[in-house]
Amino acid sequence: MANSDKEISYSNLKATLARGNEGLLVVDVRTKEEVDRGRIPGSIHIPVDTVENSLKLDAVEFQAKYGVPKPSLDTPELVFYCQTGKRGGLATDKAQALGFHKAFNYAGGYKEWSEKEGK
């Protein structure tokens, strides 16, 4: 699981999303079935077992596959989440190992998000 220096809280994620930070990419690493039941608005879906290969795609392939620009290594914020934080932590570790040093795990996951958002 990711260390606290690799995690982002609900309030920080909510504030970052509200600011509409350019360069922010929120990635849902859950299964398609989980995503179909709800997700954080504006997030893209990259299953945890494909995160590493997806981040290795060139920019054109990434854009074509996910419909958003590929984050650069120095992207301001790259946030991964799952249901409760474990898979998000794994994805964050993979991204950081590839050089995405500003990758974070939303450890509360969709479980916390949906509770706080009243979903």
TrEMBL record:
Residues 20-118 form the Rhodanese domain. Pfam families: Rhodanese. This is Rhodanese domain-containing protein. It comes from the Eukaryota.
